[in-house]
Amino acid sequence: MEFNNKLFILRKEFFGGLLVNKSNLTRYEINKYDAYFLEILSKGSYEVSEVVQCIEEHFSIDYYPNVEKFIEMGVLLEGEKSYKIKKEHLPIYVENCDKPKYLSYPFEISIYPSLQCNLKCSFCFLGDKLNKRYAEKSATQWFDLIKQATQDGCLSISILGGEPLLYYDIFKLVNYLENAKIRTSMTSNGLCWNKKMINFIQTSQYVTPIFSIQSLGLFNRDVMGRNHNIQRWVSTVTEISKYKKVRINTVYLGQSIDDLKSIVDFCYKNNVEKYSLAYQYDINSDWTSFKALIDVQDELERYIRMSQYDNLNFCVEGCMIYSTYKNLDGSIVTSEYQKLTYGCEAGNSRLEILPNGDSFPCISFLDKDLSCGNVFDSSIKKVWDDSALLSEIRYGKTEDEKCLKCSLVHFCNGGCPMVNLSKNQKMFGEGDPRCLIRKERKG
Fold first, then answer.
1. Is this model's pTM higher than 0.70 or not?
2. Which of 188, 183, 233, 190 is nearest to 204 (CA)?
3. 297 phi and psi angles, rounded to 5 deg
4. Rg of the chain's alpha carbons, rounded to an integer?
5. How far apart are CA 293 and CA 281, in angstroms?
6. How far apart are CA 402 and CA 417, in angstroms?
7. Distance between CA atoms of residues 435 and 431, nearest Å
8. Helices (H), 119-218
9. For residue 273, which of 244, 242, 240, 308 has the smallest C-alpha distance?
């Protein structure tokens, strides 16, 4: 029996491990014994009984792996021949109490190869950093960094900007990623695509374009600027979507429901794989904007059902949207892995990297220039493990009494650290002022 390295990634974590399906990036949490079991089988083809015996002797337990389930999932394959386990193939196991309580590596890394942009959107989170000139790295430098990241456990790459297509080496970079079979998304305003890039993306299996649009009407010019050409955007998206599924993203800025329904109609008619409506990051907003977004979500979901757009994947995205649901029961989040993925991603499951290599837990930290370190000067792994800022985020605990009484505190931990820092001068003092649950809690 052997581990299916072609289809699955095995990541050992402090809580046990994760199995990741390479084809769709679905993640499965496993316990420490299964992680140990599968790691041995990833080294070669061995008899299951022999591996089980090793684990039972090592941990002094009775171990019964669900081999049938692993075979059904495609995690395990029958090897052509079984070999004796070699001592050097036995993984070194360190007790959980001695391990740091954070993921071994970020799930996703967002890179900003350039901050140059042809638009000036009113809602852009880069603020005065937009169009700032950095010493931009070459595609080869980025690819070397990303290749090492995927070998260390990173699951996907997100290319952001600015406008990624204004990066001087973008075509070479996406070709590198495609040839290396690295799952990549690239968010674009859709106005800078030439025929060469369109032809590439139409046949790409690993690079998925995400096109930003806020309205198909006049509202779009108000928020994305007069340089935005709707006709050109529509032409680019429809041309690509004839051959490839694309994604579309809208930031909720108070658009009319009819504006949003028009985008939904466009998505259904043009082979759009996923339409997401995102919450606008704004430290000056309050909880009512969360509530407004959820109300719009309900209305659009009803419209999608009534229109029988069965194959359209629609969702809302944004930090802390769960705080809108006053009756949400946080007890459903029980495992250490769930706590990491339900709560803030900053420094826990993702990292963001600017054109010069400066890294941030979340791009919101750029506002105060709070960097984790430069990944080109050291490495992503070193920054991930050694950054004092990341350590503060991972181990900080809210001091807010209302938050401490909330059933969501074990993963929410007082909300957005950056909002709290901006509003209260402390990441883990008072809780996030936007939270509806906290706002309505008495005492």
1. yes
2. 183
3. -55, -45
4. 23
5. 13
6. 16
7. 8
8. 139-152, 170-179, 195-203
9. 244
pLDDT digits (tens, 9 = 90+) for 6-22: 999 999 999 999 999 99
The answer to whether residues 174 and 200 touch, using CB atoms and an 8 Å cutoff, is yes
Q: How many Å apart are CA 235 and CA 413, to the nearest integer?
A: 45
Q: Identify which of 432, 438, 277, 275 has the alpha carbon closest to the alpha carbon of residue 364.
A: 432
Residues in contact with 140: Cβ distance below 8 Å, sequence separation at least 6, in sequence order: 172, 176
Q: 392 CB contacts (<8 Å, ≥6 apart)?
A: 427
Give the type of residue at 251. V
Distance (Å, whole) CA 51 – CA 59: 12
Q: Of 14, 36, 159, nearest to 97 (Cα)?
A: 14
Say what the alpha-carbon torsion angle 296, 302, 304, 307 is, to the nearest 10 degrees.
-140
Burial of 82 (0-12, 13-18, 19+ CB in 10 A): middle
Q: Is 80 exceeded by the pLDDT of residue 287?
A: no
Q: Enter the DSSP assignment of 323.
A: G
Segment holding 277, helix H or strand E: strand 272-279
Residue 273's φ and ψ, nearest 5 degrees, are -75, -40
Could you give phi then psi for residue 312, rounded to 5 degrees? Answer: -85, 120
- Residue 137: phi and psi, rounded to 5, are -85, 155
Greatest extent of the chain over all pairs of C-alpha atoms, in Å: 70
d(CA 269, CA 241): 10
pLDDT value, residue 208: 97
Q: Sorting pLDDT into bands at 50, 70 and 90, what band is 226?
A: confident
One DSSP character per residue, 201-247 reads HHH-SSEEEEEE-S-SSTHHHHHH-TT--HHHHHHHHHHHHTTS-EE
Order of all β-strands in the sheet with 108-111? 313-317, 272-279, 246-252, 207-212, 184-188, 156-159, 108-111, 350-353, 358-360, 373-374
Domain 108-389 has CATH 3.40.50.2300: no
Element (H, E) at 342: helix 336-342
Rounded to an integer, the average pLDDT of 132-155 is 95
Q: Tokens standing for 83?
A: 């070999």
pLDDT confidence tier of residue 219, bands split at 50, 70 and 90: very high
Residues 6+ apart with CB under 8 A from 347: 102, 361, 362, 372, 387, 389, 390, 393, 394
**What token pair was written down for 346?**
């900053």
E strand or H helix at 184: strand 184-188
Closest CA to 1 of 53, 72, 75, 57: 75
